[in-house]
Amino acid sequence: MSNSLGNITTIAKRELSAYFASPVAYVFIVIFLLLTGFFTFMVGGFFERNEANLVSFFLWHPWLYLFLVPAVGMRVWSEERRQGTIELLMTMPLTPWQAIMGKFLASWAFLALALALTFPVVVTVKYLGNPDLGVVAGGYIGSFLLAGAYLAITCLTSALTRNQVIAFIISVVVCLFLILAGWPPVTNILTKVLPDNRWIVELVSAFSVMTHFEDFQRGVVDSRHLLFFLSVIGFSLFSTSVALRSLRS
Amino acid sequence: MIKVENLTKTFGPKVAVNDVSFTVQRGEVLGFLGPNGAGKSTTMRMVTGFLPPTAGRVTIGTHDMLEDPVPAKRLIGYLPESAPCYSDMTVHGFLSFAAEIRGLRGNAIKTAVHRAVEMCFLENVLHQSVDTLSKGYRHRTCFAQSIIHDPEILVMDEPTDGLDPNQKHEIRQLIKRMGEKKAIIFSTHILEEVEAACSRAIIIDRGTVVANGTPQELKRKAPNAGAILLRVNGVAAEVVTGKLRAVDGAERVQLVKDENGTVTARVFPKSSANGEFSKAVGAAAQGWRVEELHIEEGKLDEYFRSITASDTAKK
Q1: A247 touches chain B (CB under 8 A)
Q2: Residues B209 and B289 in one domain
Q3: What is the pLDDT of residues B32-61, one digit of tens each?
Q4: Residue B163 belongs to what domain range?
């Protein structure tokens, strides 16, 4: 057990150092922070709202992550395949599952770091008013899980191709679907088309990250939503292991 | 140490490796020969556990590669064909990572990296990023990775590919030295390499093993092995071949070259060459100006060509 943890740590350390070995990591963090700032204050109307909360901040996360998370995760497996290093990795004394977890956790930690660097927003709202810090914490937990779900999907698409660009595009499409299935404009259309079958609309929107992210923004950490994100992550990573196995046979 | 039984691999309808079996003991260096696309790399990928076999079994030490992959992989050092390295790391970082994933910790990593760097002459590029390295250095970096944990078993797919003649020589010497204590498999299509470094060779063609033996044994099977080569000056070709054909025990005579009055001919004995036969040939040549007379040893590449069908020959 400690051995498998050791292997996961070794892989994760290598992945993280790979991010910071190139300027891409810094560029990514800067872009992420600029965009969150722009959307929170300019588009989201943080000051005009005149409320001591971070609704205008978290509101944009599903859309920001839509492009930024696949950009972080697209290289995870496709680069490994393109360079042929997958042959080294898979002949080293570790299980494919340890490699998958190590890589996923490293990228997730990187996203967590980027998210943590948005702390000035919290400082700002705390300085200006008296926000409910529990709600803020809920929002951060939800945002972190959301990033993890997108990332796991990107890991899967990345394992399916040796081309990073294809991995990026497929991930964006899949994540976009996960947003749109529960996005009010889309669910409204669905309700109009199927007025008698509300359950179909509910079923479709149950697959959406929007439905599950909403409660977190209100500070509610519901086990159902937690379960949703964790099962998206679990399912995607399991599929990644299947994809990697089929690749080798 | 390595036991391969009835290994078979198919990719769709294509049979890449068909019923290959062999064993490698400690202290043995097995050369894996074959034309391009014969199934060498596929076999090695199955031995190292990268590809699961369609049928058959690989046993590493006492561990079955399919059922018990992690302990089996721990015993192996592997140099894949294209010598892949993580190009975003420095040589030192890459080797430290390899040592760590092989289960080394703390000071043991430093010692292992230092040893591998010394063996592969990487001191000059230690802190250089892998993607700035020349092909030879990159190859040696991957080689260093495969020996970082001093494995009992080494599997190397074309270890001298892309190296200059000096580096080729170094690597061959290194393989030979390490072969005294380890079980080594390496593939190549350079035949001198087999004679220089292997204690045994397997020739594989279109997925099946067509020959297995020491380099000497294989050489003896070459079509020209045992024949007597005679080069004389100032005698007509017909006279030479006619007289040689009459030699007792000669099966056939082949005229190799007839140029500027110098005739080169080859006499094949009926049974394997012996002293009697060479004496008889010597007697036949009495009175000629003999420039060369020797029993041919046989060449590995002649044997190789005689048993493997090359793509170009088929067309």
Answers
A1: no
A2: no
A3: 888 888 889 999 999 999 999 999 999 999
A4: 2-216
